[in-house]
Amino acid sequence: MLPNISETVLARQLKELEAHAILIKREIPDTVPIGIKYILTNKGLDLVPILDSLCNWGKLYAEGKEIFVSSDQE
What we know:
single chain; Arc Repressor Mutant, subunit A
């Protein structure tokens, strides 16, 4: 789902996510060449609603939602 990412960058990011226990790497049996799949851990699954919220926030402001500062923050 990341068409413009290099294999080197993708491999580095996947290793980092694995090192932080966000996902685990599993071989897919009986595939030639050996297939690999990545599975979110519980820690990774806990990030999903947070990342969804950040994505929605970004879309909202990318669409030009008016930004204002409330008077109690001035």
